[in-house]
């Protein structure tokens, strides 16, 4: 940026002089060089632009800076920023130019002020409450709001040059947004001025009536106040208390509100007479002395006494309020406070800051401002009973940065937590918009779904019928609503896929006549790299894996076990650890030859004499004897089917065949005892193990017994069926 220097005319010189005067007076260590430089730059940047009034545009920022220096003095950066607050918005210079020349602080304030201007320019206020929150959420530096107050105040003071429509719009905004804020910040005089100016343009007739009446009666009023004050002045002088007494014009908007509220004409509003006593010494004790004097001279109206000195208002306001019966029986409102309390009442937190600073006599550091900012936050936190209900609520919710406010294309505001993305915004609008969003247009630009939205953004969600929530979204969404909807959708989707996969598997199983139960499947799918049967079904149903190849892989495992090892793929009998018995002479023989062969009994189906059986020729382990209907035999692939040979039982006397019986029924005391008694009542039967699981009133279990043949097993089953409470008994088939 080139060295800034402009030749000031007479008016310009006077304006600069006035600005520097207030800066030096109200700001500690005012950086007059910086302010002077910014003053010149402001004139240069706005060039020949004119205001609606016909004046050069630069007079506006200069006035705003002067309001800051005179009425809201904080630090030099705020004054410089006030001079530059419309540069980015209205000229070719950029925020980077300002940052390079005036530093980060000034740039932040100008940036904040510009963003607020943008939002208010492009949207009609439909939800005042949300707008107040929006404004706050955009303020990341409290100095921004001071500049905006000053900006608004000057615009309101010069509103007469705008069209009627713009006057009313700006007045409405002021009344709904800026005045409540000024109040909350404790900026009494600015709040009153903003309200009166807004009132003037919104209720023109009522405003004129009240103003005229007050003017007509001014002389009478002033005369009365002098008469009322005379004895008070005398008594305070006698006590050598330094004070100031003034008649106090009540502001017009509050008179109007009282008239409306009480349904009275202006003549009937009694408390137009108001007196303020300011104790110059700042001695709080003297306030109570003055109160004593007033009450001694005039009769107080008891219920009208308020001690805001001992119990300050939430925005820091301190004063004694009383109403007394003055001459001619008229009620007069009296306020008594110290000079410091008075300044806090008029300038709010800015005055508080000033006093704090002068008593500490320290340089204005960032940490000081931080402290001040936190004090402001406290004020917000403790927003008192005199504020409208919703306003209090908004302050509780919102301390500057936790929430953002985003406009819909219709101009509605949606509240979202910080870091919210277009997906959060979409779900905030409607679940279906969330489910189908593919992108967003934010302030006219297309952004990805994980883009972080900012307060004041206008966002439009782009959707597609074919879009559905995906797992990736869970990584970046921040709202509970978005999270839970995405999760619910994904779970539902998974459930459906699992269901589909399960059905695919069942159909396949039926077609191939496979006998693989749930427990077996659970183990088998782990060997083909699925975590569980559920995951296996999900993979099938969602098309991640192919049904035929998976089935083949499962059959391969089953067959490998079948043919290569002596153990079955399934340990269906709990506690069954005995090795398959191998024998040579007895048991079974090959049907055709009658010769005895090396064989063993398959543990997957545990054949017993009487069962229809087949043999499967294995490599190096002789023949494995299965029941003819064993699912593992049925599942053998064609090339292995050739190894199946017919076998039959020889007449053998051994009682050493293991068989398992599954029983189900209603659980009750001594059920287990009744089961074992029933089994052992059959001759030559030994129980190997009993495994019973009971679940509430039901039980289910497998009893493993040694039997000689199928006939003996049949007797056991019949006996068990007679046990009271047993509903189902059958031979356990893996
Ligand atoms: Mn401005």
Summarize the structure.
The chain has 30 helices and 21 strands. With 734 residues, it is α+β, with helices and mostly antiparallel strands.
Notes on the protein architecture:
The chain is of the alpha+beta class and 734 residues long. It has 5 domains: 10-199, Hypothetical protein af1432 (Orthogonal Bundle); 212-351, Beta Polymerase, domain 2; 356-395, no CATH class; 403-478, Roll (Ubiquitin-like (UB roll)); 657-732, Alpha-Beta Plaits, CATH 3.30.70. It is built from 30 helices and 21 strands. The strands form 5 sheets. Strands 1, 2, 3, 4, 5 and 6 form a 6-stranded mixed beta sheet that branches. A 6-stranded mixed beta sheet has the order 12-14-16-15-17-13, with no helix packed on it. Strands 19-20-18-21 form a 4-stranded antiparallel beta sheet, covered by helices on one side. A hairpin with a 5-residue loop joins strand 7 and strand 8 (413-417). Helix 3 (59-71) runs antiparallel to helix 4. The chain is elongated and about 135 Å long. The protein starts with 9 loop residues before the first helix and ends with a strand. 36% of the residues are buried. Residues 356-374, 379-400 and 564-586 have low confidence and may be disordered. Bound molecules: manganese (II) ion. Residues 60, 85-86, 151 line the site of manganese (II) ion.
């Amino acid at each position: 940026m080139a060295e800034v220097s402009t030749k000031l005319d007479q008016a310009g010189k006077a304006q600069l002089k006035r600005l520097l005067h207030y800066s030096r007076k109200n700001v500690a260590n005012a950086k007059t060089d910086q302010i002077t430089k910014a003053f010149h730059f402001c004139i240069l940047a706005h060039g020949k632009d004119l205001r609606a009034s016909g004046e050069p545009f630069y007079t506006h920022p200069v006035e705003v800076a002067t309001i800051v220096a005179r009425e809201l003095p904080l630090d030099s950066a705020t004054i410089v920023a006030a001079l530059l607050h419309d540069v980015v918005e209205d000229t070719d210079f950029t925020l980077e130019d300002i940052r390079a020349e005036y530093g980060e602080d000034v740039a932040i304030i100008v940036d904040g002020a510009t963003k607020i201007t943008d939002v208010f320019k492009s949207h009609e206020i439909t939800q005042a409450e949300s707008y107040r929150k929006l404004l706050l959420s955009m303020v990341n530096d409290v100095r921004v709001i001071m500049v905006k107050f000053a900006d608004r105040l000057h615009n309101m003071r010069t509103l007469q040059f705008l069209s009627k429509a713009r006057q009313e719009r700006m007045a409405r905004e002021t009344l709904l947004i800026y005045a409540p804020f000024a109040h909350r910040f404790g900026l009494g005089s600015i709040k009153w001025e903003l309200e009166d100016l807004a009132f003037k343009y919104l209720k023109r007739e009522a405003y004129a009536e009240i103003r005229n009446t007050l003017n007509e009666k001014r002389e009478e009023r002033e005369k009365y106040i002098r008469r009322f004050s005379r004895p008070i002045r005398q008594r305070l002088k006698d006590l050598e208390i330094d004070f100031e007494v003034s008649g106090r014009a009540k502001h017009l908007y509050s008179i109007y509100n009282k008239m409306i509220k009480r349904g009275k004409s202006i003549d009937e509003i009694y408390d137009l007479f108001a007196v303020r006593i300011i104790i110059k010494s700042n001695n709080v004790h003297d306030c109570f002395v003055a109160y004593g004097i007033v009450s001694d001279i005039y009769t107080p109206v008891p219920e009208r006494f308020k001690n805001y000195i001992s119990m300050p208002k939430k925005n820091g306001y301190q004063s004694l309020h009383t109403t007394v019966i003055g001459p001619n029986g008229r009620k007069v409102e009296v306020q008594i406070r110290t000079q410091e309390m008075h300044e806090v009442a008029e300038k709010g937190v800015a005055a508080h800051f000033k006093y704090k600073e002068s008593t500490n006599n320290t340089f204005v550091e960032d940490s000081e401002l931080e402290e001040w900012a936190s004090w402001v936050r406290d004020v917000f936190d403790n927003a008192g009973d005199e504020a409208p209900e919703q306003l209090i609520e908004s302050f509780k919710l919102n301390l500057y940065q936790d929430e953002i406010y985003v406009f819909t294309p219709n101009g509605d505001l949606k509240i979202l937590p910080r870091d919210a993305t277009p997906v959060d915004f979409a779900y905030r609008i409607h679940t279906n918009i969330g489910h189908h969003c593919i992108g967003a247009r934010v302030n006219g630009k297309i952004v990805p779904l994980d883009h972080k939205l900012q307060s004041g953004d206008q966002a439009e969600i782009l959707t597609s019928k074919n879009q559905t929530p995906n797992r990736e979204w869970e990584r970046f969404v921040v709202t509970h609503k978005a999270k839970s909807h995405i999760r619910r959708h994904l779970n539902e989707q998974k459930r459906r896929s699992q269901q589909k996969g399960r059905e695919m598997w069942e159909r396949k199983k039926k077609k191939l006549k496979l006998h693989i139960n749930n427990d077996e499947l659970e183990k088998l799918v782990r060997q083909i790299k699925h975590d569980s049967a559920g995951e296996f079904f999900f993979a099938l149903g969602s098309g991640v894996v192919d049904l035929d190849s998976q089935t083949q892989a499962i059959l391969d495992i089953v067959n490998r076990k079948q043919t290569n090892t002596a153990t079955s793929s399934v340990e269906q009998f709990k506690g069954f650890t005995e090795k398959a018995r191998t024998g040579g002479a007895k048991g079974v023989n090959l049907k055709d030859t009658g010769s005895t062969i090396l064989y063993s009994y398959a543990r997957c189906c545990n054949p017993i004499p009487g069962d229809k059986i087949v043999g499967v020729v294995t490599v190096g382990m002789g023949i494995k004897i299965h029941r003819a209907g064993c699912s593992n035999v049925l599942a053998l692939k064609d090339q292995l089917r050739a190894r199946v040979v017919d076998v039959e039982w020889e007449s053998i006397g051994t009682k050493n065949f293991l068989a398992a019986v599954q029983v189900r029924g209603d659980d009750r005391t001594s059920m287990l005892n009744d089961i074992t008694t029933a089994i052992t009542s059959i001759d030559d039967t030994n129980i190997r193990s009993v495994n019973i699981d009971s679940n509430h009133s039901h039980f289910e279990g497998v009893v493993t017994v040694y039997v000689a043949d199928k006939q003996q097993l049949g007797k056991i089953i019949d006996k068990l069926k007679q046990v009271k409470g047993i509903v189902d008994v059958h031979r356990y088939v893996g």
